[in-house]
Amino acid sequence: MKKSSLFVCLISALVMHGSWVSTAVAEDDREAIFVSREQRDLVLEDMRNFLVAVQDIVLAMADGDMATVSDVARAMGPGKGRGMGMGMDMPMEFRQMGRGTHVAFVELAQAADMGSEGVIADLGTLMSNCTGCHVTYKFVIKQ
Predict the structure, then answer these.
(1) Is 51 exposed, middle or buried (0-12, 13-18, 19+ CB in 10 A)?
(2) Domain spans of the chain?
(3) Which of 3, 90, 95, 109 has the fewest CB atoms within 10 Å distance of its CB?
(4) What H or E segment, with its residue span, contains residue 33?
(5) Whole-number Å distance between alpha carbons of 101 and 91
(6) How far apart are CA 122 and CA 132, in angstroms?
């Protein structure tokens, strides 16, 4: 048997046995926010809406369409007919980050109204807020 064939057989045996591959679960040391399933679903829906808006903004920026950037960003601003509702149970710092994200969308809309300069920087700031929240918090369903 050729050396290369022997090597392939040996590697295949190790892979099948699983002795050379190990996995580990990373420790998740984010701050837990205990919520009902309904609360979690509502906040996750808001977060998905943020992502859809960011995607629409990036596509509009690629087309040089600052009017659409402004419209999409402004639609994600604070309020818009929604009360705090279930969010009142969330930690103050979490709520402040959420509000900060809505405000960052308005600031991005204002930059887009002035032209394209500063829009990418504002989008970066907005995304830093999203990343900061996801690095800091995790939802845990109340039992």
Answers:
(1) exposed
(2) 30-141
(3) 3
(4) strand 31-35
(5) 16
(6) 15
